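Open question from group meeting: does this chain pack into something compact, or does most of it stay loose? Before anyone orders reagents, we agreed to write out a predicted structure and look at it together. Recording both the input and the output here so the notebook holds the full record.
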Amino acid sequence: MVISSTILAAVGSGGIVGFMLGLLGGGGSILATPLLLYVVGVTQPHVAIGTGALAVSVSAFANFASHAIKGHVWWRCAAVFSALGVVGALAGSSLGKAIDGDRLIFMFGILMVVVGVLMLKPRKAVAVDRRPVDLRMCLTTAAVALAAGAASGFFGIGGGFLIVPGLMLATGMPMINAIGTSLLSVGAFGLATALNYASSGLIDWWLATEFIGGGIIGGVLGMLLATRLSAYKNILNRLFAALIFVVAAYILYRNWGTLMTG
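Structure tokens returned:
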């Protein structure tokens, strides 16, 4: 009975993350670690982060495939950004593993507040000028990739909220291309983080499989609903931001005492 309830919690939690990703096109993966900790019942924060990173990676690669088919991906940018960012992700995840789990989750709670604030801003299709491929653009892209990769690895998150504006800033690509291109990086960063955590035995592979399975089902449902609710995108983003604030408050409350006594 205990096993079946754990499986249900894992599949259900994965379903929530996949549903949010399908419905909103991003941001949902930020809920993976809190769900693994407080719903599924993973006791070690580092195992939750490592397992969550693997789930985020798989969902990002799945979404990336659909964008690639539609021609939204700037392949050269995607490859360079991903390669540089993976270096940052490996460094960030190594640092994350070395930090006390409760402190890391407290910092994760603060990050969620930042993501919630960013999600309150409605996404606008802003016209941007394509930048020339010169030394300045290359250096800017490298710096943004390393920073985004490091943050992604440190917290075990996808980091799309950092990568999309980063790509637009560095290259001047349109938002739809930035979203499609970013997904290769999100997948690569998540995979690098997961492999780094796996090398320390910090991934629950069976749990990850259940979580990903739920994510696939949730993603399909989310995408089906997204077309029907496309007119309410900004309202949905605000509701999701409110949910993020609630989860962040819970994380900070749960880990404040440990931080103070630590």
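Observations to bring back to the group:
The longest helix spans residues 233-261.
The mean pLDDT is 86.
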